[in-house]
Structures are given as C-alpha cells and as structure tokens.
Amino acid sequence: MRRAFIGSFTSAGGRGIVVADVDPNTGALTVTGAIGGVADPSYLAVHHTQAGPVLYAVSETAPGAVAAYDITGPNPRPICSPVAVRGDEPTHLAIAHGHLLTANYGSGSVTVLPLAADGTPQPPSSVLRHEGTGPHPDRQLAAHTHQVLADPSGRWALAVDLGTDSVRSYSLGAEAGELTLHRETALPPGTGPRHLAFHPAGRHAYVLGELRPTVTVCRWDAAAGVLEPAGETQLFPDGVNGPVSPSAPVVSHDGRHVWVAVRGPDTIVVLALDETGEKAEVVASVPCGGHWPRDLALHPSGTRLYVANERSGDVTWFDIAPTTGIPHRAGSVAVPAASHVIFV
User: In what order do the strands lie in the sheet containing 280-287?
Assistant: First the structure.
C-alpha cells in the first residue's frame, strides 16, 4: 500500500506533516498520524538513497529552514535538526544533481544544500538572490521566487519568480554546488508566474500565472537550456466574479491534459493539449471539493487527482475520466490547513 504525506500550515492550525495510507483500489486516504516540531512544513519532496527514501519539508518561515525525515518505518523520523537555508519563507524545494534546492519566496532567492550519502542536508553551498520587480503594486515590489525544479533532462534547474515575471534557468555545478545563471525568460508584465510543469515528452513547459489567470505554453530546448514562450491561454476567457488566484498546474502522464487549481472560484480548470503539446484549450471547470485549493497532485497511476484545500482543511480526491480528462469527485479526508500532497 502506498502512503501519502501531506504538508500543512501549523500557524493556521495544521498538524505538521500528516501521514496517510492510500487505498490501492479506490485511492481513498486514511490518516494514520502526523509529526510536528517544524513550523509550517508547507511543501515536500522525496529523495531515494541507498538506505531508503528521505522526506524533505520546507519550513515556510522567516528565516526559513528545511527538515529531513527517514520514512522507511511507519512514521517519519527526523534524521537531523532543521537546516537554515539563509533565505526567508521557502515555498518549494526539489532534488537536482544530488543537491536539495529551495525557492525562497520572501527573500527572492534560491538556495543549494548538498546532500550526504544518507540524504542528510548540509549547510548551503550557494545562495543566489534574484533582482527585479513587476507592475503589481503590492505583490511585485521585489523578486519572489516561488518554485525551483530540475528539468526532465536533469541538466538544468529552473526557478519561477512571481515578483519579476520571469523564469530563470541555471546550471548547477555538481562538485561545488553552485548555481550559474544561464538564461532568464521574460513573461508578460503582471503575469506573476507561480509554478510550471513539464510535458512528459520534455519539449514543452506550462507556466501558471498567479496574478493573471493564464497558462503560458513554452518550448523547452534541453540541449541549449532555453525556455521560449509560444502562446498563452486564458483560464477564464469569459471572465469570473471576485478574486482569482491560480495555484498549481499538473500535466497528465499521456500529455493530453493540464489541470490547474484555482483559488477564489475554488475550481479545477481542465485544459486539452494538441498532439504537439504546444496548444492548450480550456474544456471544463469543476469544483475543487473545498475552499482555497493550495496545491494539486496526480496519483502515480495517473488516474486520480488530489487537491489540498487549505482553508476548508481537507484533501479531496477525484477520479479522472480517461477520454475527457474531467475529474469526478470521489472522496475527502479532513486535514487542517492542508498545503501539499506527495506519494511514496
């Protein structure tokens, strides 16, 4: 039986990292416990070492930190004290070239932490601060790195910056653990890019705007490390009442659909992709099953979506219609201040 680990905001009543069993037939989650001791472990990542899987969590605080857990047993066990990232409010983390990278929203920076053989994070080897602003009067007064991830080829690290309306690609020195800026890709002013997700073929990426509810389709040249915008799709072409704040994109395993969680309307927007992956069209929108969907996760089977509904305090799961890609609500479990779901 698979397990799910769910991040949450302890400052809003969350229990820390919540552990749940995943029913192999229905996908239903059954909460089995939680581990506290770290403030606001909002986003999670897993690294597979020779000794077994290690779970990492950001501590989305100022100053920020990362925590690491041995998850070979029934409950996560801390393998070290939280390690400072020398940045504020880390919102995302990822594994690249044997290093742990964090995107530090508050300080607009990316931190590189080397990993020991057993997965223990070491003090930062590099902290690279972004510079720039955008037109939004409140959200873009400075750089705000929201996501960092490795590209599918494993050659590059990409950082999505909401404050500067851009995506930066970096090379990462595997020995020294230093980031080197390779290219910065500009997006339309005021987009406020939050996260991106790659097409399974690795030749396109879909950049989600938080300040403008859009998906920017980009070509990705892994040989050159170049991200090039190719088109933009409005998530609500007919408009919508009230505030709109997209949070997370997910691409289907077969490359036919993109799903986007949107806070405010509290919906999952379904986009259909053409055969090339370069054209995206909105085909449906369904309720997310709760309030303020912070993140969206695809089950490893590719047949179910899970939504971390932060303000209603639940994780809701959906069965995906294989032909249309439209999610159908299948169940829900209470998880106060849920922020992210990951499967192991």
Answer: 245-251, 257-263, 267-273, 280-287
